[in-house]
Fold this protein.
Amino acid sequence: MLYNYFIVALRSVFRNKLVALINIGGLAFAMTCCLLIYLYISDEFRYDRYHANADHIYRVTRNFLSHDGSENLHLGHLAPPFGPLLKNDFPDIVEVVRVLNTNLTFTIEEGGERKVSFQEPRSYAAEPSLFKIFTIPIVSGNPETALTQPFTAMLSDKAAMQYFGTTDVAGKELHVNGGLVLSITGVYESFPSQSHWHPEILVSFSTLEDDNIYGKNQLETNWGNNSFATYILVNDSFDPVRTAAAFPAFIDRHMGPSEGPDAPAPSSWTNLFLQRLTDIHLRSHLDSEMEANGNINNVYMMGAIALFIIMIACFNFINLSTARASKRTKEVGLRKVAGANKRQLVVQFLSESILTTLLALAVAIGLTLAALGWLNEFTGKNLQLNLITHANFIVASVAAAVLVGGVAGFYPALVLSAFKPALIVKGHTPGRRSTVRRILVVSQFAISIVLIVATLVTMDQLRFLNNRDLGYKKDQIVALPSGGDGFAEHYDAFRNELLRSAFVKNVARSSRIPTGRLLDTQGAQVQEGDSLVPTDVVIKNVLVDHEFFDTYGIPIVSGRDFSKDVLSDDSAAFILNEAAVRMIGWGIDEAPGKVLRYGGREGRIIGVVKDFHFESLHESIIPMVFYMGKEYQRAQMSVAVNPANMQQGLQHIEKVWKEFAPEVPFRYTFLSESYRQLYESEQKESQLFLIFAALAIFIAALGLFGLTTFNTLQRAREIGIRKVLGASVTQIVNLLTQEILVLILVANLIAWPIAWYLMDEWLASFAYRIHLSPLIFALAGVAAILLAIVTVSSQTIRAALLNPATTLRNE
């Protein structure tokens, strides 16, 4: 019986090649989209779940509050004293590990001669408990002792092969600039891609206790250096809610008042939070992260797009199947006369539907394998679809295809099986179920129009971001790293040598450079009359030198810039931005000359700079203070190069770098590229919207083409009679297209408010954004209408041009 159903279904598919092509093609494209998105989403949800204790690991984070109680900073890192105290005070915490990014420059020597130097941004100091908390397979060495002694290190197998050419590196040495020598004690397997951090070199945490590096006292008492990622392993009785509620008392107990007995309790301006390890990748976007994370909203967006596209394909399927009903009335009538009951007819038509989806799945798997290379390049992942190792996935896909076929074919099967044979034999054709088809066409195009609007809005917002005046020159700046220990002593000579070239316009140093996050802040007191009073304004600080504002082309709007001729500028002078002056309550011209106490420094404000976008346009311009000092060891350098001679300028910079910092590999970044990367997520969203909108429109147009084909066939007699009575080709085309155009207009009316709401919510994540223009919605509507006209006209014009004598003779 089943075999018979299958044979009849197969014959039906091949007998109606146009319908089969449209259905299989539309479903195949939609399934390919769903398969690719499934691979992406499943990979996103697997982050950090490979650890054996994943459900018992938390990261502890720290926030800081403004004087009004609002949060102004939330870090994914803690000060070093917190780690040991957490384990001591909370019995449900089994283990604690502190991790510090060192970003060291290493040198490998052979026979006393330098063999190779490299800078490893993914080098971390870590406590031995790291191996008790995380699942880290060991290639060589003993994880119990590998990081217990100072001046020891472990390498990932990737780093060992890259720098030594072998994983047999135990006993070898790594030299760190400054004379430090690390003994390699073992090798571990590189962290998988589904990890929120990827250390390549692990240095023993006890190395930091050396007074020449960090100092044990600093690790125990420095509450301000929030650079240490802190993870905890908890037991089964651990209650995160109860523990979080105890954090304020824990902070007050250990930190105590910092400015005397009358000072506010520390818990009034800072607190700790717990974050599940498995939530970090998709649900954590704090002001400091180990690496760039994913976004759960992107996962939801991708899932919604997959759902929309498969819905469009299913709507096509239902539309075409019901439209074919009138062509299968005689078949249904004969089957019923021959004794077929309704259940048998439903099974027969469902089998045809399911066979179509299974054929579409086979095509989709082939398309998915072909498209995986593009997807991996686009996402930066290494997704794979192996038909053997992913057998469960394939079985689930087949089950899903059967389900889609059953759902999409159920309604047409009911329609076809409900035909009454007595009426069919007498020549009566059942009425078309046009209401359902109209609803489905409207739904298809409403979804497509929403995607078109989303594409246009994201492209417009990106154009706005790229063209907005940032208040500084980004296109001519080359950013350089600090240069390592001792480089600051030779900075003036380095800068002078760079400026000997006409290709280099200026050089500056700063603790942070534009496009980075502003994380550094201290308490401020401002002048009111003859007194200094605390201000509620949170002011972020940047250490700069004399050339910073000139290098970036940032104008001074009041007062003056830092000057080498004024010796007190490097110890008792401040420059504020306009936002800081406004929020404090001063006028721009009255600020210069005012006294400011910031952190441990007191001095006068000598100037005000024009507001500029230091951070991305997701963030508002915030109050900033700039000052000079002598702590330039970790400062980054910004080199303004003549844009017309960029290549020659880079060659000169590299030449001078190798003269002054031969131990440090030459690395540079273009500030314009760093700015572009701030909106990489939005760039990809725009591309995705464009790709999926095009795919959704193509599938919808494919279905509209098939539906129009059947509609013109059904109305062939009507068209012939109208032509005999004198109707022109234009009148016939208008008759056949006006209903579709009305449906597209209805789809626009439904799609516009939905698209407006969704895109307004998306734009709300930007402090600086475009305003939604009615023109965007009009363009989307016109595009959908033009597409429908082109699709429908290809069939309606052909039908209108047919000789009515031929049409009526066939009827």
In short: The mean pLDDT is 85.
